[in-house]
Design brief:
This protein is of the alpha+beta class. It has two helices and ten strands; from the N terminus they run E-E-E-E-E-H-E-H-E-E-E-E.
Length: 162
């Protein structure tokens, strides 16, 4: 790993300025939310586990939930020098990792995470410019503050850059 690589854990978020690289592993039903200000070369990455903090009693960790993580990540980026009007989003994850023969809404956690993420970003007027979400496989991502590259790696499926 590069010395400029910052690891973002599950239910975690962080911000980096160029030449920093943010990475998170193990995006199954979780969603990796990458925000990027290309003009100021500031990047932010959140690894969210759940769609909505209001449905959970133990919700003190803002990074755990899409609704609170995006707001905190945006705030942290602005404090680091990003400009709101330059910020764009890229998404990865939100997979259905296990097959269920049920229409139970609670089992659609990946879909619900993606839906919530897109809803919050739309409310904040942050455009989603690229996404690799859904399917049935996990992902590892890297976000490069230098140029906004969002590299997505999957086991047995290769990788892609958004």
């Amino acid at each position: 790993m590069s010395r400029d690589m910052i690891v973002v854990g599950m239910a975690d978020l962080n911000v980096a300025a160029s030449p920093g690289i943010l990475t998170t592993i193990g995006l199954g039903s979780c969603v990796g939310i990458a925000l990027y200000d290309g003009a100021n070369k500031i990047a932010g990455l959140a690894h969210v586990m759940l769609p909505d903090s209001s449905q959970i009693k133990n919700n003190a960790n803002a990074a755990k939930f899409a609704d609170t993580a995006i707001v905190k990540l945006l705030s942290d980026m602005l404090r680091a020098g990003a400009r709101r009007e330059h910020i764009k989003a890229k998404l990865a994850g939100g997979a259905q990792m296990f097959a269920f023969n049920s229409s139970n809404e609670a089992m659609r956690i990946g879909d619900r995470n993606v839906e919530s993420t897109r809803k919050i970003l739309a409310e904040l007027r942050i455009p989603v410019v690229a996404a690799d979400t859904g399917a049935t496989y996990g992902r590892t991502v890297e976000l490069y503050a230098e140029d906004g590259r969002f590299v997505i790696k999957t086991v047995g499926r290769g990788g892609m850059t958004l």
